[in-house]
Amino acid sequence: MFKSSKFVSIAMSAALLATGGGAAAATPANAAKPSIVLVHGGFVDGSGWEGVYKILKKDGYEVTIVQNPTISLADDVAVTKRAIAAQPGPVVLVGHSYGGVVITEAGNHDKVAGLVYIAAFAPDKGESVNTLIKDPQPGAPVPPILPPQDGFLLLDKAKFAASFAADVNSDTAAFMANSQVPWGVDALGGAVSDPAWKSKPSWYLVAADDKMIPPPAQRLMSKRAGATVVETGGSHAVYVSKPQAVAELIEQAASNAKVAAK
């Protein structure tokens, strides 16, 4: 009797493996989804992605938040590429603001299946933040950037909320203003050598009330990149104030990137 039961057990195990059952059936559902890598912009760190992170995690995505030093573009690209390389499979790379420059360069990594720009710079070859902001349109708001100190920039704390985070609750906006990460002047001058959006599909969320990167500039860059565009009311900190809208676009990109990666 024991031998017979043992034989049946072995036969059932073999059958399960042959039909994709057993251990294969226990594979987590999110294994088929691309990983999400989130890249912050200047003056802030990765903690602003918390709301987006929680939504994506709840929906079954693996999410990594890059903490860029924002001292030079080359360093930020290197840090981001290390985060990409650590992922088990395809990656959807997301950048906010200056993070758009970083993902435009780092997005050439073989694992990157798609790019998502959130109120971000999307430079072409040879362009940098400096070249993109040097000729603002007449009447465009002027970000309250203080004169550089020791090669780093900060925003005027008293004007931070109005310019960067007008639709974020006052306590959070005050915290963001007082926890600013100095942004290296060298990072603003870092030029893109090979724009990933020329070879990878891209998505773009335009923040219609942005006073840091004017919405017309966002629309122009997104059109040039051939991105799938979604527009929503929101400040430059739309990733903080409207995490659901941001997460929805990222998941749209992830769904399409997953199909493309098969």
UniProtKB/TrEMBL annotation:
InterPro entries: AB_hydrolase_1, AB_hydrolase_fold, Sec-Metab_Biosynth_Hydrolase. Transmembrane segments: none annotated. SUPFAM superfamilies: alpha/beta-Hydrolases. Residues 1-25 form the signal peptide. Residues 36-248 form the AB hydrolase-1 domain. PANTHER family: AB HYDROLASE-1 DOMAIN-CONTAINING PROTEIN-RELATED (PTHR37017), ESTERASE_LIPASE_THIOESTERASE DOMAIN-CONTAINING PROTEIN (PTHR37017:SF11). This is Alpha/beta hydrolase. It comes from Variovorax terrae.
